[in-house]
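Incident log, structure service

09:12 report received: a user says their structure output differs between two submissions of the same chain.
09:20 pulled the input from the user's history:
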Amino acid sequence: MVLQLGLVGLPNVGKTTLFNALTHAGATVANYPFTTIDPNVGVVAVPDARLDRIAEIIRPQQVAPATLRVVDIAGLVKGASQGEGLGNQFLSHIRAVDAIAMVVRCFEDENVAHVTPALDPVDDIETVQLELILSDLELVERQIERVQGRAKANPREHAAELEALGAVADRLRAGETLRLADLSPAEREAIAPVDLLTTKPLVYVANVDEEGLPEGGELARRVAAYAAQQGAPLVTLCAALEAELTEWEPAEARAYAQELGLACTGLDRFIQVGYALLDYITFFTTTGGKEVRAWNLLRGETALDAAGRIHTDLAKGFIRAEVVHYEALDRAGSMAHAREAGALRLEGRDYVVQDGDILNIRFNV
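09:34 re-ran on a clean worker, output below:
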């Protein structure tokens, strides 16, 4: 299953500029709302210093990073849940992603129109959040109607479910985001069949001007305070600069980022946060020394799941997995030395893969 991170926000906040910087896709960017109508979808390489180190040790013919799928979704406006702007079309596109990156405009530019006369990033966030909440409320109310229909034949059987759905609806009417709500087990079970927007993991992206880096200035600080209150991660970057840096040599881009006080580029930080938001871990394969590849896997998945991620034949014929952790290989300096040190072990199909594991799947053809 391929998980997707969706870029959402008001129009003209820099979503598509960020998308183009991430994916080199060349999606249209313009100074008017709804430049993006159909979602743009791109695949992004995940930077990982461990992959570079493994390649340095193995010296393969090819190196392949793990990837992250990013979706650029049309800008939302106030009233979208009632059909304003692209309305339900926009909301359905958000519903299709697994985690949300909310891009917030934190830069002043008289040449780039904003949907409100005054730029207030926290108000912008709350506008988007309200539309997501209202959309969720509509879905929960529909679910209540469906369960009420089933309950006519046996009211007692569905009483607890209706009570739980009613409690969730009350939370949404009160403006509560379900991601932050202390839902009871009954409430979680009741909404499980409904794909609700405010349950999705969320990261805020403060899009600032270059002069405001690295902290981003006053507007970004307000977003940072809001994100901290919400318990959500924040990435501060300048999408226009990041798009420009993609045209530079990588070493020059990194050097310039360091001049601005950044440990790495904003894109790298955004990709890493988005990857973690989807609850991915990374495992590696070395394929007989010919290719070193990084793979994503959901946290908690097993060696059998990892085998299937590589190829279905490996899962069907799975015998066992040879496992050495990245840190052990790094210390040993070679696979042969790692084996001599006893760092390589055999694991069965139920072994829970750890972030940084290097796997060699033994299987029957």
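09:41 both user submissions now match this output. Likely a transient worker issue. Closing.
09:42 reviewer note: The chain has 14 helices and twelve strands. The CA atoms of residues 180 and 230 lie 7 Å apart.
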